[in-house]
Fold CHAT domain-containing protein.
Amino acid sequence: MLNNSNDGTRQHPVDLDHQEIDHVDSGSCSEIIAKALTAATLSFIGLGPEDANSNCDLLPNAGAQKRTLDSSFELPPGVKGIRFVLKRDSGECMEVVSSSYESLKKDSIQLESKQWQIPMAGDVVTIHYEAALDKGASSPQGKLERWEILYEEFQKTGDLNNISEAISALCRVVETISEANGNLAARLTDLGNLFLTRFEHAGDLRDLAEAISLQSRAVALTPEGHEDLPTRLSSLGNALRCRFGCKGEVSDIAKSISVQTKAVALTPDGHAQKPGLFLNLGTAYMLYFRQTGNLSDAANGISALAKAVHLTPEGDTGLPSRLSNLANSFLCRFEHLGNLDDASEAISLQTRAVRLTPEVHADLPGMLMNLGGSYGRRFQWTGDLGDIAESISLRARAVLLTPEGHAGLPDRLMNLGGSFMCRFERTGDLGDIAESISLRTRAVHLLSEEHADLPRYLMNLGNAFQCRFERTGDLVDIAESISLQTRAAHRTPEGHTVLSGMLKNLGNSFQCRFELAHDVSDLSEAISAHTRAIDLTPHLHADLPSRLSGLGTSLKSRFEHSGNLSDITHAISVQAQAVALTPEGHANLPWLSTGLGSSYMWRFRRTHDPEDIKNGISNLVQAVQLTPEMHAERPSRLINLGSAWFQYFTSSHKSDHLDAAISAYKSAATYTSGSPRTRLHGARDWANLLNSFHPSSGTVLVAFEIAIGLLTSIASLEQTIQHRHTLIGESWSIPAQAAAAAFRLGRPDKALEWLEQGRCLVWGQQSQLRTPLDALKTHDRVLADRVMHISRYLENMGSSRQHSGTDMSWEGKVSLENEALQHSHLASEWNLLLVRVREIPGFEEFLQPVRCSTILQHLPESGTVVVLNAHNDRCDAIVLLAGSDDPLHVNLPDFSLEKAKQYRRELNSRLRSHHLRVRQAEAIMTEDWAASERAAGRYGRKRGPGADGIYLVLGGLWKEVVKPLLDVLGIARLEDSSKGPLTRMWWCPTGPLSFLPLHAAGVYEGPHRESIMDYVVSSYTPTVTSLTQRVSNSDSIAQDVSGIFLVSQPKVPHADPIPGTTDEVSSLHQRAKDNGIRSEMVDGEGASAHTCPDLMEKFSSIHLACHASQNASNPLQSRFLFHDGHLTLTTIMQKNLENADLAFLSACETGTGEETLADEAVHLAAGMLAAGYRRVVATMWSISDRHAPTVANDFYEYLWARRSKDAGTKFDGALSAYALHHAIRNLRENLDNTERSLLTWIPYVHFGY
């Protein structure tokens, strides 16, 4: 008989299900043979009944001790041939074989052998037999043996085809047995257990229903007092327990416990089946305990499981699984009470179970999975990283031992993913959450759509996406989480025990998205899901407190949004109930106390009731005190406490309350585990309080130093460039604020370092990935080659990797999540490689944040670099001069952040009035400039000089920023440019200054007109470091690549024609040939977005005359428009452009940034610099198709006129800044100073060296 005893209660996502198979079938084939041979033996030796030898005639053989059975001997059913040896203690021995035995056994599906003894008066007969079983399994007993073989094969391989064939074989057996046959009940029990086994692996609820029906019928056919009644009752109890786990009907678990209890009571002490019966009873109690949280159920369960272990002798093959189940019961109680002794006991028992299980045993992967789960649970409480490392190691080994196609593989993948997710929640390592999502996506993919466990899998995968969202803020992840959890909830039947938990998780995901996107509909969905979850949760359920708290959090959010006092009162009520229902020492108590404390603080803001603030701080203090050291949530709880103390300070004005707030924020910022985003929040608040209340303290610099370091860590290389930009946008003001504090404290060097470290992070990372490695190759070529290899992969994946989407197939999702995992592994290896390189003497600063002293060593000799920083209370400049030992700090008292924003608004207003900021689809044709510009913009009506508009902007920049700097530097106006070249000035603006035309600052009205163009040649640089890297690494361009590639696209879909581009490029190409310069031109349909990148690799410089479009939400998708598609920045950055020199972007808005990412320079010009070009000519807004060819011709003529005599076919853009200055001067001479004319030449800008 197949006794389907379950070794544990399913606790997701921990794999606790293992089956212990006890063969106790009294009607097995071997016993039938044994009975027949015993009767024959008694007949042979003269001790049987008188007629016992009627079918046992022996034919004489050559030897006296060997006999052949007569053909009249009736073999047992299912046996084709037999050989047995009879041996008496007295020494007499006889061998008996059936005819043709030797040949028959070769065709048998299985040989069966057995040995036993028959005691007799004064003697003992030992019988040993071999039986060749019927290969065709034509008899009922033959079919029975076949299903047993198939079942054993299923246990080894997990192949569901084997269990299905076993069911079919046994069904045919059952069909041949009449109701009156005493063996029918046994066969029904076996068949029911096979259906139950298939259900547990395939999840088809029809199998479960069939199992219960068959086992109920078996019990009904078994009379009271029958020796097999206990095992049949227990099998029925197991099936009922499984249905309770699926549907949550309390009557099922109550009946399961009832029949299991009866089974134990009917079984006498010492019976071989009693340990298994105790096992099943204990498992049922533990499942009920998970539902109710009733400690008496846990005590009964542990007691029964302990008896199962106690009654199992050492060496019994069932001992390991029973130890594992007892361990699971202790773990279950630990999760409820948080008593570490229970967790340690679970680990001890499961370790013993693993040691007792042979390496090749089919149960070993499950044992390892359970032991890994216990280490993981203990880790969640203690934060000991050794525990979670052991958990991952054990579960990874379990997965490796599980063959592809095994029915248990999806569960093991899911649970291994759970362990990685646990470690991620503590350390914030994105590699772990990528591993978790990849494993869990694969697990879901392996499950059929009809599998009963699919909702659980979907929920767990959704949890992983939510975890990653909370770390990165990527809305794609939370959308995927909501989609998966919604699907899980919809697929779960009403009344199912897990539905309430799924609804809670779904509510949490909606809440998370609301907190970032502030869509009120998400908040409504969250409250609805949480409310329904509570309604479905029994009053005494162990998870009720967490569900109440989830509702309280959403109600608090609605109060924050709407101000309805009833919401926050309701929130406090349900959260107080949650805390009250939670026993002391419970692992969830700190989290529940945090929620309650935060709600009290929010109500205090409205009511100013001192009881609210007292209760709020009390709960928040308790939450921190109860949170274990190194717990990932400790920083966020410290931040909540810090916020509460500061709120208290604003009403009490007591310094100790302020000190408590500062202390809490500092602790959060300097914590060594937890989310970097959370710790950055703490560092920012710490710095802000110090900056506001202790502005002269040197600790201000310490706080900002930590904040800047954390800012760079949140946008790490394992994320796509698009998402790194999103993360940086959340904290864009920190570098400017930190720099302002450093200026105030007399540390311009620190201000420069922070501005360099905290701005243009993404382009800086891309630049690092392209760092020349000549020096490292000299020391260690293998290491240098590996650094180069990984950097190329990271650069490519950062710019090209896509996110999986909610509407994507599971195959596609598995593929993309594997890519994300590979990306994460590469980023981790990159960090390890950096550590190795920095251990080499002389390479300690390799790719470290650049120090001020290093920056000063590599400044350009040909001019001055000016870094501008504007914050709320001040505006400052850092002037950097080659040969200087220190940066020069220049305060700009007449300028401010508010003025910068005012000028930006005014400029945008004027551009919109001239249709120079309108997107292409919104363009409006005007008579003045019909079909004459390179993007959507068109010039409108003329506007004369005045006190506002563009004149206000340019005049203000001149008087308040540019002229004061020129005066400090002693740079005089050069009336006649022919008397000598102007000095160069590189502008490195921050914040809203990045959108203002500093290169055109001046007075353009009245008698005293002057502008910056009379003093210096202006260029821009995204960062000082990007400029100094060009100075220090000014390698010559390979001669075979030096040249210019010219492209024009006069007509592209969905954009106005720009016919001037054809003449522009054609003229330049002809003049290049006239000057002997290597060049190639493609025009119109002769140019392709697909082939252009390859040609860019073959030429050092490119001139693009076309439409362009900036993508603010995804800067890497900013693009140049071709007739056959788009040439994106992503595509360009994937090319090897190590010989790139000049890019002239004769298109519109190629130097326009994005206001939400002011310090990231997310425009095409900066992208071309990051792709490898040394200098770029770009535009800040739309340019005129009428004047663009003239500007381009004048630009190149300036360069060609200054070529050296030995230049040959080479093209050199080193003088491009002067060339643009010259071309713009020529254009200005043909224009007046009306606003329209100014807006014609101002957009042209130069970037780079």
